[in-house]
Amino acid sequence: MAEVCFELFNNQLVQQLVGEADANLRLIEKMLNVEILSFGNQITVKGSTSDVENAKNAIDILYNKASKGIEIGEQEVKAAVRMSGDVKVSDDNKQNLNDIVLKTKKRYIYPRSATQAKYIQEMLKNELVFGLGPAGTGKTYLAVALAVSMMLEGTIDKIILSRPAVEAGENLGFLPGDLKEKVDPYLRPLYDALYEMLPAEQVDKKIALGEIEIAPLAFMRGRTLSNSFIILDEAQNTTPMQMKMFLTRLGENSRMVVNGDLSQVDLPRGVISGLRDALDTLHNVDNISSVTFSSEDVVRHGLVAKIVKAYEEKSKRLAKENHDGND
């Protein structure tokens, strides 16, 4: 058993951190199997050595967020606990993770897992980043958040959001309505992310002015995209030719993020995913990074994480059975 005692110096922030009737501390206790005692600004944590360290890290993370004006609730506590075990390398590393906050017009957005923190750091550092992993891990949401933040800072002039309009093909002709009506259902998640970060009238105005462009992948052909933040979503459903076309649109002072889930490829049997092909082709090229998310990074409803994990385990089990059967 271990015990650590420490003091937090801002009374108002401590009140926000512990929550009503110490609810936030009780949640940390439950998640990390520790005992937390709070007397004014003094906090004592008891439990196993690793659990106490993680609880102290989680409390530090929450205190840091409260100091930035972020309201502390259940989701923030769960995020802090998720990150607590991944910030043990050094105090400097922990501080760097805590300092990652993206400012948009409507909210502060921050990583809810260490992988999300790494993802944001890689997007800031590299011109091309691949985000890989299951739905619900925040790949597209965080990329849009960084794009909006950079636009508000004046670092870029344009945000371009794209995805294959129809899984495996972009065959839009059979759909009813004009072009916008045909493609909007496929681009809806990108609109939703924008409306969470900017007032609706600003989103609509920037779209009208061409400062934000949301378009199917086929519309990227023949263009050079400069001074832009470019995001390709559902990239697992591109062909190698489509992916090469998209990647070569990158212009001066631009960043590109390519997101996808290689376990959810909808291409016809025998067609190679452009995302997988790009990863194989570009793995030794400088200024390109890839970040892989797992079920541990799912930030939607808790049941979603369990569902994703169950499918991951099934996939591993089937792969092992196939391997053993071929021996």
Which key phrases capture this entry?
single chain; 327 residues; alpha/beta; six-stranded parallel β-sheet; three-stranded antiparallel β-sheet; globular
Brief summary:
The chain is of the alpha/beta class. The chain has helices at 11-18, 23-32, 49-67, 74-84, 91-98, 114-125, 139-153, 179-197, 200-209, 240-247, 274-282, 302-326, and strands at residues 2-7, 35-39, 42-47, 102-103, 108-109, 128-132, 158-163, 212-216, 228-232, 255-260, 288-292.
Compile the SSE list and pairings.
Layout: E1 2-7, H1 11-18, H2 23-32, E2 35-39, E3 42-47, H3 49-67, H4 74-84, H5 91-98, E4 102-103, E5 108-109, H6 114-125, E6 128-132, H7 139-153, E7 158-163, H8 179-197, H9 200-209, E8 212-216, E9 228-232, H10 240-247, E10 255-260, H11 274-282, E11 288-292, H12 302-326
Helix pairs in contact: 1-3, 2-4, 3-4, 6-7, 7-8, 10-11
Notes on the protein architecture:
Residues 88-95 have low confidence and may be disordered. Helix content is 47%, strand content 16%. The chain is α/β, with parallel strands linked by helices. It has helices spanning 11-18, 23-32, 49-67, 74-84, 91-98, 114-125, 139-153, 179-197, 200-209, 240-247, 274-282, 302-326, and strands spanning 2-7, 35-39, 42-47, 102-103, 108-109, 128-132, 158-163, 212-216, 228-232, 255-260, 288-292. The longest helix has 25 residues, at 302-326. Helix 2 (23-32) runs parallel beside helix 4, helix 3 packs across helix 4 and helix 10 crosses helix 11 (274-282). The strands form three sheets. The protein has a six-stranded parallel β-sheet, with helices on both faces. It has a three-stranded antiparallel β-sheet with strand order 1-3-2, covered by helices on one side. Strand 9, helix 10 and strand 10 form a beta-alpha-beta unit. It has twelve helices and eleven strands. It is globular and about 65 Å long.
